[in-house]
């Protein structure tokens, strides 16, 4: 999970999670800081995509399906634990 998710401010007692997807070409640095700005009720997860940041040595996802499959396989347990919301750019 640590490879795919950046969580700067872990809040195990949070009532919900905000799962952030970086804009094209960006990493988690900007969005991960949000974890310090919200109160204890919200835990911020930022998706770290292959080919960026600590995953720089990995090839970029070949298509959206492979990216979604990786993300859902890692997040599935977290999504079942508590309510969540997605934030991303189009």
Automatic annotation (TrEMBL):
InterPro entries: AB_hydrolase_fold, TEII, Thioesterase. It is an enzyme of class 3 (hydrolase). GO terms for biological process: lipid biosynthetic process; monocarboxylic acid metabolic process. It holds the Pfam family Thioesterase. SUPFAM superfamilies: alpha/beta-Hydrolases (SSF53474). GO terms for molecular function: fatty acyl-[ACP] hydrolase activity. Its EC number is 3.1.2.14. Residues 17-89 form the Thioesterase domain. PANTHER family: S-ACYL FATTY ACID SYNTHASE THIOESTERASE, MEDIUM CHAIN, THIOESTERASE. Belongs to the thioesterase family. This is oleoyl-[acyl-carrier-protein] hydrolase.
């Amino acid at each position: 999970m640590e490879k795919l998710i950046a969580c700067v401010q872990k809040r195990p007692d949070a009532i919900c999670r905000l799962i952030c997807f970086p804009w094209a070409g960006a990493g988690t640095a900007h969005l991960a800081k949000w974890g310090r700005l919200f109160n204890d009720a919200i835990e911020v997860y930022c998706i770290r995509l292959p080919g960026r940041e600590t995953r720089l040595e990995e090839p970029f996802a070949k298509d959206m399906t492979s990216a979604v499959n990786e993300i859902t396989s890692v997040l599935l347990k977290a999504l079942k634990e508590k309510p969540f919301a997605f934030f991303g750019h189009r």
